[in-house]
Design goal:
Elements lengths: L1 E7 L14 H9 L7 E4 L2 E14 L2 E8 L4 H11 L5 E12 L6 E14 L9 E5 L6
Parallel strand pairs: 2-6
Antiparallel strand pairs: 1-4, 1-7, 2-3, 3-4, 5-6
């Protein structure tokens, strides 16, 4: 099954100094194809049930296409949850590296690393919804 949706709302402005992705972070992720091949999980837990196939900017938002593996029990059940509208959102799982600022001595985010994308019932960020899916014929 292929699933398309928004993985991150519009990025924060460049002056933002926090844990959310900035517009520049999104630009860099897309231009470097950094999300392609990232594992997909359910609610940030368990085994990998698929992979990110593609990512792009949709306006200022980050959209992705993922492939769910219906050969695993978890992947098949999640596919049915997507089809039935039970799981309607995406959520990014990432780490943020922090460094001390030379000027102020405060901690500041220096790099954000996407570890996984999750199919979730309700995402924590606004507008990170699954928009469409397609079921691939299993016989092929």
């Amino acid at each position: 099954m292929y699933v398309w949706g928004t993985a991150n709302p519009a990025g924060e402005h460049e002056s933002y100094n926090g844990l959310y992705l900035t517009k520049q972070d999104i630009d860099e992720l897309v231009s470097a194809d950094s999300l392609v091949g990232i594992p997909v999980k359910v609610e940030h837990k368990g085994i990998d049930i698929g992979l990110v196939v593609s990512s792009w900017k949709n306006g200022d938002k980050l959209d992705i296409l993922v492939s769910l593996d219906r050969k695993s029990l978890e992947g098949d059940i999640t596919s049915k949850f997507v089809e039935g509208g039970i799981c309607q959102d995406f959520s990014l799982g990432y780490t943020v590296e922090l460094t001390h600022s030379d000027k102020t001595g405060k901690l500041a985010p220096s790099r954000k690393i996407i570890k996984e994308v999750s199919v979730v019932r309700r995402g924590a960020r606004p507008d990170c919804h699954i928009h469409a899916y397609t079921v691939v014929d299993k016989r092929r």
